[in-house]
Amino acid sequence: MEGNNRLLVVVFSGLVFSGKSFFRNWAMGLSEFQNAQTVAMDDIRKLLWGNKSDTDITKTEHIFKNEATRFEVKRRLIIERPPAMFLESVMLTREAHQKPFVEMIDSANWYLQTIEKEEANRDDLPPSKQSIKIDFRCIYLYCNLETVRRRIQYRLRELEVSGNKSNASVFDSEGFLRGAKQIEIPPVHYTPLYINTSDESPHALEKQRQEILLFLRGEMPIGTEEHQRRSDEAVMILNQACKL
Amino acid sequence: MKQVVLFCGLGTSGKDFWANKVAEIYRSERPSQKVVFIGISQARKQYWGKSEDMTDADHLLKNEITLLEIKKQFIINGVDVVIANMTMLTQSAHQLPFMRMISETELLMCRKLREQKARQSRIPLEAIEFKLVNINLSVFWMTCDEATSIKRLTSRRKGLDQTGGGLVTISEFRKGQHGFEPPGNYYPFVKIDTSDESPQADFAREQVIRSYILTRKRRQ
């Protein structure tokens, strides 16, 4: 995938326990994405506040952290031009999270294409036939409430053994329910690939990975009807969570 | 009171020299205030290296990086005074975004203050009055005549000028000169001509700058 003019930006979105880290780590381990970069919210938090816990940070500071994270993605895309960037983000609300991300991608595209033209002009080179372009793809991961409960138990056991080394928020079911009430699905500024991660069997996992891989390669692996079905299913699960 | 002291103008006009001088004034005369100096060349050195390799769009991105840094200093680090050195080349792509950043920062600081009060006093956010936090802005448009610019460029190339300015070639200077739009629409400013480099002229300039920054009234 290197050598072409496509810069792939993938956001693994969804609520806590949906599987964002799991699938991002898997994708970054694939040989075709060996030069992919990531920008972790947690790293930005450490850069801004050191070891201060997420819970000590005000809502306004969180908003700034989001802005700083988007800007770091944009800066790297323009200056470092990695072939791919894999990110994890809840992408909570349309106006404060989803739309600003798409606007950041548009701005980065403008910069990349303008710099390309200016460099060609400066070096007396012919204009590029195929301009550099960011391909932004979002994967919305979701799972049913039973799976959330199960994964909370895993996490608690894990924390008992290893402790919370990262200082990130220790999410529990309250955290999940708070997110479920706030998240705005379906997004309107882009079309995500919906992946239900509830089934953790090897066969289901293989299917989820295949779909994600096709999507990363530029295809939409499911038809319109299936896409709509999954979108409805994701919304239904959120509605169920809101009633709890 | 929060304050931004901005030195704008073309390369070689003396922005860096005077911004550093003002930083010294604050440190010695207002030691209790948290003061930071943010130069546009910091971002250039960190991400691009030499200025002559940069495209116009690179310069614009450098500007954005610097604006975010100023915002961060107020919102996250809680500084009182930011002393900034930025060319502010055009009105629409530089001066207007700068003022937008100032307004956004003021709003975010108000919100943060309110959230902190609510958290400390354990009362609902809605019960806390929304008080505007003003950033007092002092802008100096630094200029000098062409002969002085060329003399300073020559010094930089020979390594005699240690002020840290990024501009070293005449062609870059001319390009900036061609594209520069004086401030005027978005903020008040004081124009400072640095062509006369005599100690008496420096002293007079320092008096003007000092009285403007230390006696500025609240921005309306």
TrEMBL record, chain A:
Domain of life: Bacteria
Name of the featured protein: Uncharacterized protein
TrEMBL record, chain B:
Official protein name in the record: Uncharacterized protein
InterPro entries the UniProt entry points to: P-loop_NTPase
Highest taxon of the lineage: Bacteria
